[in-house]
Amino acid sequence: MTDLTSLTISQASEKLKAKEFTAVELTESYLAAIESANQTLNAYVVRNDDQAREMAKASDARLAKGEGGALEGVPLGIKDLFGTRDVHTQACSHILDGFKPRYESTVTQNLWDDGAVMLGKLNMDEFAMGSSNETSYYGPVTNPWRNKGSNQALVPGGSSGGSATAVAARLCAGATATDTGGSIRQPAAFTGTVGIKPTYGRCSRWGIVAFASSLDQAGPIARDVRDAAIMLKSMASVDAKDTTSVDVPIGDYEGAIGKSVKGMKIGIPKEYRIDGMPEDIEALWQKGIEWYREAGAEIVDISLPHTAYALPAYYIVAPAEASSNLARYDGVRYGLRVDGSDITDTYEKTRAAGFGDEVRRRILIGTYVLSSGYYDAYYLRAQKVRTLIKRDFENVFNDGIDMILTPSTPSAAFAIGDEEMAADPVKMFLNDVFTVTVNMAGLPGISVPAGVDKGGLPLGLQLIGKPFAEEELFQAAHVIEAAAGGFVAERWW
Amino acid sequence: MSVDINTVKRVAKLARIALDDDKAATMQGELNAILGFIDQLNEVDIDGVAPMTSVVDTAMKKRKDVVDDGDRAEDVVANAPEKEDNYFMVAKVIE
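Output (structure tokens, whole complex):
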């Protein structure tokens, strides 16, 4: 029998419905794969074996009756940022020590309502703050990809590093992830997987641990464009419990795949050609342009003049919102408590012990930029720059551009413990230089694997769409996938 | 702009994060690197630009003023480090 973990979501669903194997068998295959790989890759922080078996059994009962939802019996990994009822939910932080919510996030509830099975909770950067998964309280995640002929362990990117590794190493059929500045698209690019950050407001944020509320969006990381479309369809909803959930109908994402892009206008922004970008990435971008030309799309040079300011503005807005959101971790209501001499001392000791270095840095930056006398100089200025960034996109879309093609990242995956990155927090931030503009403007963006670099590491191209144009993104992303083919890491773990 | 060590300590106090002198010194260097990066924004002409309030044009949703959830005290305190009779327990605050 073929290894069941090699099947995509769409293939597995079809075979489950045809009774070629059971949901329990499929789940057992993944549990065995996790058992043998997790010690090396560290993708899962919590395994959910018993509950997964129960959920699979229930799926089999529904499938036997010819019932079942769009993801019936499909085993998924869930990023540790999503609240899952009575199951470890800690945003990979020590401060949420022992936290098991009494509620289920809307996104995960949507997945369970469609029949999906939860394999466990996935590793991530602490509170989603990081681009390498190295800030996790549970240690770094290893990328299943390595440079040709090298044993050096590479990062899977972040913050959704566990999600990306689990999908690339076939430790789940698909995974949930979240993206505040690039946390879905950068790890997807680093691992040869597909990741989409939908339009702000497409997926409910209810029950997801908050980082920066005006930027956070949930989305899937999957093995191919079709699987990403199937997962997003299930994750997306209009939710009364999230006031920023937008009341727009959910598109036929899977149905858009295979439609021609003939006549589509694809913009190439000159500001994304940055100094020091590796030749491989420039060459890949050109290849992408060629693929679209051949598919009948019209390529148009465009300008997004405020691109360079997105990252510095992000490092005001995101920490400011984080410092406010993370004020709730006080050692009183949930999670870790370190007792002090009085209540203030308890707060200070608890928060010093519970937050890691990166989170502490960002809380302090956020507190500083919001503090008396500095608000106008920092936060207000950043929000005005954000208006200009969004206007750049509106201008090109108003000029008739349908979507924008860029590289996903300025480099391929780098080594765990990279000294330059560790020594300079700003260098780590630059990972998100191509993705963060999309969060600042609230737009949808998808990263699709498009090729490999000289060392054989995967690289991604990003498509940026108009608000709620996810269907068009899936339609166009498939062109890259069809031309580039799939990318599977050679198994060494 | 850059911050001195006293500002770092003051901000840490505001954020309720204990910071010893060594950590404060390290943090000062890191924060100044980030603030130096952020300073690029001073190049941007923002005259007459309105600050972003929402990325999606949408009217604030309002719900009916009715009770539709509640009576879950046990759930609310379920994860508390210390609790008694559905109360959060802390050290005495008022003498």
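Residues 319 and 366 of chain A are 4 Å apart (CA to CA).
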